[in-house]
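Two quick folds needed for the group meeting slides. Do the first one here.
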Amino acid sequence: ILSAQYDFLRPEVDAYVARLKAAGVPVCYQVWPGTLHNFFSMGDQLEIARVAMRNAGAQLRKALHP
């Protein structure tokens, strides 16, 4: 799960992550510093979005193919 540092939905994401962890679900959660809501879809414009995309892909591969 990822979130932007300045995302208006971040409190909900934080609460969701906390509930998953409380339920014993393994969670990888990263908040990307200096970013705004929807930064992840701006890979053609923002280097941090490209880095976040690569990181998300690596985490997904790790989870699906341990």
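Then this one, please, same format:
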Amino acid sequence: IGEVLLFKLLRVRSIKWHRMYFGICRDIGQNQDPVRNESSIDMELRFRAGHKELVVTIGGKELWVPKRIAFDQLTADEWAQLWPSLELAIRETFGETYIGQSAW
């Protein structure tokens, strides 16, 4: 009694949506020549979608790298904002074939 609680409501990201995305990355990778892994496709898509950040190396060189999309890095709302850019990157880079294959 008399205590104050502070909390922040978070929408949990959809595991189904996450699995669908990496399933698409895996399918794309398996259909490349030479075959690529899902991590390679994921990094390319994040970069093409503009989800990247500038990193300065120890030697002072600037390098653009894809930002992380781990559950602790993006909220559900942030993921929903990013998804259209990822979907567009998939369509433009690898074609329509991979969009709509899996339901999330």
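Slide caption for protein two: The helical segments are 15-30, 38-48, 76-94.
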